[in-house]
């Protein structure tokens, strides 16, 4: 991906854990590496097809001067999130915040922190078989769209499916979502659980009836196998109610472990059922 560099932007701010740092202020130096597609700008020589880095500099200046943080890690986080949410062409940013002459009681030139943040593509499965099923699925979409750092970019049709497992219960309404998010996988898991809580989800019976189920299917091409967080979802190849709506919005999305597309997995599953 193409990059625009802003190097060593000198600013004055009031950040630090010491009282005098927040009262007297000091110099901070910020650098930004901005990741975006500049091809149209290069072809047309038009600023509207690129990013006005003077506006980016002003936004960084406002944040450093107006915010008051204890840690430069926090300053960098605020800058990164603000730029990604404000400037649509940006896909990823790398922010370095330097603190010259930090008061650490030994000689040094500068202390700095560098972070990289960006948009991630994820896919979620949503399902309900209690009460207003469609209303609960719509609730999940509305909740996600209200998050500042997340946007729903594609929604499958809702399909009616028989329940999974041995518990006798009503049929489900299922769907799949494509989202773009600045959240980490664990932050996205926390959001999914918060959405389920909003829908008064109760975990009384394994694979039992539920007002709303929100599962993370994929997150970029990441593979995470932790006790409470497994991405890709381990049951994807076995569940037609997941694969069918996924295939309607991302048929060629490749499973990062099995190296098969969603459509291929769906076809294979149907061939053995």
Secondary structure elements and pairings:
Elements: E1 2-13, H1 19-24, E2 26-36, H2 39-44, H3 53-66, H4 72-86, E3 92-100, E4 110-118, E5 120-128, H5 133-146, E6 150-155, E7 159-161, E8 172-181, H6 185-198, E9 213-219, E10 224-226, E11 229-231, H7 240-249, H8 262-272
Antiparallel strand pairs: 1-2, 2-3, 3-4, 5-8, 5-9, 6-8, 7-8, 10-11
Q: Can you walk through the features of this model?
A:
- The chain is an alpha+beta fold.
- It has two domains: 2-118, GTP cyclohydrolase I, C-terminal domain/NADPH-dependent 7-cyano-7-deazaguanine reductase, N-terminal domain (GTP Cyclohydrolase I, domain 2), CATH 3.30.1130; 120-272, Alpha-Beta Plaits, CATH 3.30.70.560.
- The chain has helices at 19-24, 39-44, 53-66, 72-86, 133-146, 185-198, 240-249, 262-272, and strands at residues 2-13, 26-36, 92-100, 110-118, 120-128, 150-155, 159-161, 172-181, 213-219, 224-226, 229-231.
- The strands form three sheets. Strands 5, 6, 7, 8 and 9 form a five-stranded antiparallel sheet that branches. Strands 1-2-3-4 form a four-stranded antiparallel sheet.
- The longest helix has 15 residues, at 72-86.
- The protein is elongated, with a radius of gyration of 23 Å.
The proportion of residues forming helix, as a percent range, comes to 25-40%
Distance between the termini: 43 Å
Residue windows where pLDDT falls under 50 for at least 5 positions:
none
CATH superfamily of the largest domain: 7,8-Dihydro-6-hydroxymethylpterin-pyrophosphokinase HPPK
Q: How many beta-strand runs?
A: 11
What would you report as the Rg, rounded to the nearest angstrom?
A: 23 Å
Write the H/E string, N to C: EHEHHHEEEHEEEHEEEHH
What is the averaged pLDDT score? 92
């Amino acid at each position: 991906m193409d990059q625009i560099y802003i190097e060593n932007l000198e600013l004055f701010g009031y950040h630090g854990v010491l009282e005098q740092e927040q009262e007297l202020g000091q110099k901070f130096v910020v650098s930004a590496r901005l990741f975006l597609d500049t091809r149209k700008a290069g072809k047309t020589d038009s600023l509207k097809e690129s990013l006005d880095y003077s506006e980016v500099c002003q936004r960084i200046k406002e944040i450093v001067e107006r915010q008051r943080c204890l840690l430069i890690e926090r300053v960098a986080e605020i800058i990164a999130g603000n730029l990604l949410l404000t400037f649509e062409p940006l896909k990823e940013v790398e922010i370095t915040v330097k603190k010259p002459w930090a008061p650490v009681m030994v000689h040094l030139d500068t202390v700095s922190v560098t972070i990289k943040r960006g948009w991630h593509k994820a896919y979620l499965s949503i399902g309900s078989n209690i009460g207003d099923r469609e209303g609960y699925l719509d609730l999940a979409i509305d909740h996600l769209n209200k998050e500042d750092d997340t946007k729903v970019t594609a929604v499958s049709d809702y399909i009616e499916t028989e329940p999974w497992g041995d518990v006798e219960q009503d049929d489900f309404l299922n769907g799949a979502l494509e989202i773009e998010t600045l959240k980490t996988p664990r932050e996205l898991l926390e959001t999914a659980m918060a959405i389920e809580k909003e829908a008064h989800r109760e975990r009384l019976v394994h694979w039992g009836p539920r007002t709303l189920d929100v599962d993370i299917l994929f997150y970029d091409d990441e593979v995470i196998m932790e006790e409470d967080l497994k991405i890709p979802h381990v049951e994807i190849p076995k569940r037609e109610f997941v694969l069918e709506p996924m295939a309607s919005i991302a048929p060629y999305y490749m499973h990062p472990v099995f190296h098969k597309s969603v459509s291929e997995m769906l076809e294979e599953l149907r061939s053995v059922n």
